[in-house]
Amino acid sequence: MGTKSSTKSPPDTKKASKAWVLVVAGYSIAAVALVAFLTINGASGIPTAATIGTAALIAIGLLLPAAGMLQLWMGLGPTEGAAKYGFSMQAFGFVALFFGVVLIVALPTLTAYLISALLVITASVSAIAGAVLLHRHFAKTNASNRGGAAYLILGTVLIFSGVGAIVGSNIAFEYLISQVQNTVYVDIGAAVSACGFVLAAYSFYILHHHSSTCSILEDSSISENGL
Asked: What pTM did the predictor assign?
């Protein structure tokens, strides 16, 4: 007769898995939306429906990861402080980024661009700090997670760097650069952000896979040592 290694009830793995999927799906949608944006930015004769659809996909791609991270945050215990802070700071970063992007699209004025720049800077600090905390947490809990968590930091930096380039280009357009130059810089920023979303999606996919594997191994160990 063995001894149970833990009397703690198992976590809601189905709910946690759905949260991971939300994050990966959101990042993937954002990457696809930015690629679509690259095809229509600066082009003439683009249907209004295509522009609205692309904007809607970008919004979904920013809000889904935030929703997934908040679910992951709520599912963690008080002993996992670094991960809780990491997920919450990433979620806040993407919500703030959403409002920054809305300002760029809805109010194409210098004042809106400046406010958007402040939001993007605040969001980037929060999201990157959250990514660093998540890297520390996952690298500490499982060495195989180190690479996936590192991709998250790089992806987050690229996402916000790209958006920052777009905002900066729009501000510069008011004083320094031409419409053609602005279009080129915005395209570069969108491409950089798209690459960041791909890396972030890959990172969360790897982290989810490793976390699920570890959970299965722990459950098997408990079953073998149980009554």
From this structure: 0.83
